[in-house]
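We emphasize that the prediction below concerns an isolated chain of 120 residues; any contacts that depend on oligomerization or on bound cofactors are therefore not represented. The input was used exactly as deposited, without trimming of termini.
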Amino acid sequence: QVQLLESGGGLVGPGGSLRLSCTISGSAIGISAADWYHQAPGKQRELAARMTAGGTTVYSDSVKGRFTISRDNTGNTMYLQMNGLKPEDTGVYYCNADVIIAVASVKNYWGQGTQVTVSS
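Result of the prediction step, given as a token string:
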């Protein structure tokens, strides 16, 4: 069974950095396209960053210039490098990815979420 496993969250002071990871667990060829979503306490989940299958990246205005989405060379792991963290970046971060299960078979999965807390 394919899952997306997230890691890398934690507690960091304002201005600090974290790198989130989202890795395929199970039998799959790789990640085609992926998003990172941010859900602040008491608010709806919102798109923070996107990487298309072709490698194009898109960022929300709130994270542009501070966060970077990337993929490793194997295509099995997505990253979100978070620099210049602010208290308003606090919340749960979820990855959502189109995973290539087999030739001509792509399924969408959500990670379990990882908590990021930015506080002094």
